[in-house]
Amino acid sequence: PRGRTIRNGIQTNAILLDRVWCGFFSREQFAVGVSLDGPADLHDLHRWNRNRGSTFEKTLNGISLLQEQGLEPEVLCVVSAGNVRHPLEVYRFFRSLEITGITFLPLVVRDKSSVTGASAGSVLAEAFGDFLIEVFNEWKERDIGKIKVQIFEEALRTAFGQGHTLCIFKTTCGGVPVVEHNGDFYSCDHFVDEQHRLGNILENPLSDLLDSYEQHAFGRAKLGTLPRYCLECTVRDMCGGECPKNRFIRTPAGEEGLNYLCAGYKKFFLHCRPFVQAVTETWKAGN
What we know:
Layout: E1 9-12, H1 19-27, E2 31-35, H2 40-43, H3 56-68, E3 74-79, H4 87-96, E4 101-106, H5 125-142, E5 148-149, H6 150-157, E6 178-179, E7 184-186, E8 197-200, H7 206-210, H8 213-224, H9 228-231, H10 236-239, E9 249-250, E10 256-258, H11 262-286
Parallel strand pairs: 1-2, 2-3, 3-4, 4-5
Antiparallel strand pairs: 6-7, 7-8, 9-10
């Protein structure tokens, strides 16, 4: 529509990309995210083809084709039990590919029969925190201004009094709903179920669904359902309780609704807080 700017983005494993596709993405200024979990031995732990063969080389070829077209693909790295013990190996590998943007996505699959509450392949909370700390220390010394790591950028936003851009750290959420192929509208891509189906864009105006009471209530519940342990936490401004989908363990006092990743996020944010505070002081002194 006239007067509107449409920004397109795509997430891909890159194995089917060719020069035609990459040229199209470049001309149309697509933001491209590529799923890559580290070097071959780590990437191929979970990302194989239908014959259980490696997809690593095809993914790297896709990244190379994107870069040839002048694009700077962001790497979306799932951190699981398989690669969490190799933070610097993973990060340095991405740097060797001249990747300029990285998002680390913790794998959490709920399993009520498990002692931890999550599946065996899920990342352990404290291990995820250690992973982030190791990468942060390296990034801080070598790559500030060169590589954007999403969670580090989000932490630094608090230094400038800026709100979070990533929904999992915001006070309220609901700004990233999902429209399925048949037009069904859901509150969030982590809650694609009948309870969170608010309508269908073929039957209801999209603006009505976005501004509906149910959608706003969904967003407000992110804060409203936080346990006291979170409300009193010293890093809540950085964490925001993270995503509600991961709030399935109990606090030390036994209250329900604590995020499975709490220990890891708290460990990381406490580690990076002094750096963030130093940035704050430097910024204030310069203004």
